[in-house]
Structure formats: C-alpha cells, structure tokens
Amino acid sequence: MNNTDLLRVFCIAADSLSFREAAARLAISPQGVTRAVQRLERHFGELLFHRSTRQVRMIEFGAQLSARARESLQQLDALFQRPGESMGSQLPTRVRITAPRSLARIHLLPALVDLATAHPSSILDLRLGDEIADVVDDQIDIGVRLGFMRDNRFVARAAARMQFVIAAAPALVVRTGVPASPDALAALPTTGFIDNTSGRVWPWYLAGERLFVPAAPVLLMDDPEAERDAVLASIGYGQMPYYWRHLT
Hints:
By secondary structure, the chain is of the alpha/beta class. Helices cover 36% and strands 15% of the residues. The strands form five sheets. A three-stranded parallel β-sheet has the order 4-3-5, with helices on one face. Strands 1-2 form a two-stranded antiparallel sheet. The longest helix has 20 residues, at 60-79.
C-alpha cells in the first residue's frame, strides 16, 4: 500500500467497531487492516487506537488524524472527478454552446428547452455557426459538430451516426432522369458545399466507403441551408443530411 491507501484503510477503520468489520468493508483481510494501522503508527510515532480482543477505540491523536485525512482524501478524489461530476445536478451560471444552425434548430433546441426548464438559474448561451469555433477566445464550453475530428486537443465523443441521402427536386428528376449509378452523377447538374477550412468541395459519402466529388458543380455555397434551398429549387442534385427531411 502507498500512503494514500494507508489513509483510506485508516479512515474506514475509524468508522468501524473492529478491524474485522473494516476488513469486510474493504474486502481485505483483518491482518491487512492491522498492518496498515501499524505502519501509520510507526510513521507518526503515536498510537491511533486502543485495541482489545473485542473492539478497537480510537484515541485523540487518531481522531485528529482521521479528520485531516478525510479532508485531504476528499480533495484528492475531487482532482480525479470528470467535468460535471462534482456539480451533481447543478450547472454553472453560464454554459456557452456552439452548434451548426440546422442541427440546432431540429435537435439541439428541443433538448435545451428541457435543460433550461430544469436549471432556471443557469444561462444557456447558444452560438450557431458551421465553422469550427475558436474555443479559447470564444469561451466555448461545449461544441457540437458534424464530421471528423481534426484537432486531437479536444475531448470528443460521438453523439450519433449521420445518414446522408442524394436528393433532387422532382422537376429536376423529370428533366434529367434518375441516375442509374453514382458514377452517372458526374454528367448531371450538382451542387457543391465548400469547406471553409480547406477551401475545397466536400466529398459525398456513398455506400461501401466510396466518395464522389462533384467535378463541375453548377452552384457552390458555403452555407448548408442555402445548398438545401438550391436543391429544392431544381438547380442540381446534392447530398443532404437525412435529418433535413423534416424541413422539406
């Protein structure tokens, strides 16, 4: 046992009627509890307990050490708590969240309504945009983004898997016909979404881990909702997130 382990054993022993009871609570042998207490007594040069064959009773020095040890162990445990664990059900006074506009409208806002109702004393500060935010300068607490992580400094979790569909307005399908295969899209009018980070057109993700990059899109945009409106206006085929079906 290291010093921290010794103090944890000692605190459990201090709350127990006997070392046997402490051992049962710790799932170790009574001899292990005895050895831990003896090591602490040798270190401090003081007795911690009066021991008899039937029970143990903590003496004054042991009571003082127990109080100090509990406070120190609580502070140590707090260092290893994940963000939010120590707050219980309480949120900070202000939580700043960034998310894409369309995703926020459909999925995030309904969730935030419930959260705001449950925590009326907190301010939920929602910053909408599709570009990666400067989380330090913008003081972002939580970010929701689509796509792949490009910065390994962030702590990220996958919230859900995205589904995409290749969509076109009925009038455009009547005019051009239904493409027989993904390769046939190259000969049809398409839209392109610009990744402002790289300046390139986002590829379309197809089944079987295939990619299709619109080679000659009739319209380029850096706003996803504008691209959706262009597809609905029969300008071209585009790849859309499936959750947008609620907005069409």
